[in-house]
Amino acid sequence: MNEYIIYTTEGYTIAPNENVEVENCQVLGCAFGHNADEAQDNLLKENPWIIESGFDESEFIIRQLAK
Questions:
Q1: CB neighbours of residue 42 within 10 Å
Q2: Cα 56 from chain centroid?
Q3: Helix (H, G, I), strand (E, B) or coil at 65
Q4: The pLDDT value given to residue 6
Q5: Cβ(48)–Cβ(59) below 8 Å
Q6: CA angle 65, 24, 11 (to 5 degrees)
Q7: Which residues contact 48 (CB under 8 A, 6 or more apart)?
Q8: What gap in Å lies between CA 6 and CA 22, rounded to an integer?
């Protein structure tokens, strides 16, 4: 099986000085699967908070990690 990182550009982060909203990527997690779809399914099964928090699966960016 391969390992994948799954992230999204949804949401924002507040800068340390709390006066600036920073547009960036949110790392949702890493998961194993035979392909990207299986890894996404595994991540969501193990982390239901992702969908509960309002993240949209269609916005996920999934990249295989090098061995």
A1: 17
A2: 10
A3: coil
A4: 98
A5: no
A6: 105
A7: none
A8: 20
pTM listed for this prediction: 0.85
Q: How many residues in the chain?
A: 67
pLDDT digits (tens, 9 = 90+) for 18-59: 777 777 899 999 999 999 999 999 999 999 999 999 999 999
Q: Which residue has the tokens 């949804």?
A: 10
**Are 5 and 63 a contacting pair, CB within 8 Å?**
yes
Buried b (16+ CB within 10 A) or exposed e, 16-36: eeeeeeeeeebebeebebeeb
Tokens of 36: 């990207």
d(CA 29, CA 6): 6
Q: What pLDDT, on the 0 to 100 scale, is given for residue 34?
A: 97
CA dist 63 and 39 (Å) reads 10
At which residue do the structure tokens 């194993």 appear?
32
